Amino acid sequence: PGSGFVATIPARDTSNAAIGRWYRYGMLTHLLTPRGDVHVVRSRDGTFAALEMLSYYCPGVRPGCVTFRYRHPIPASGQASR
User: Which is nearest to 16 in space by CA: 36, 43, 41, 44?
Assistant: First the structure.
């Protein structure tokens, strides 16, 4: 799409405001819970992918095992179905 994208800002710690907070932080549990958002990402070659974060934890609630669902390519309209 011609609009609706948030550009990545290249820097020492590269980030993108659209996906910077893909999680909710549980104050009582201190765990990260995905928000359930589906993000559309444009690659260097101009194709699009849909990405949904599912989990950040390994078995036993150890951090670092990122699990996500993706679909690539998706139509250039940016509309991804789950």
Answer: 41
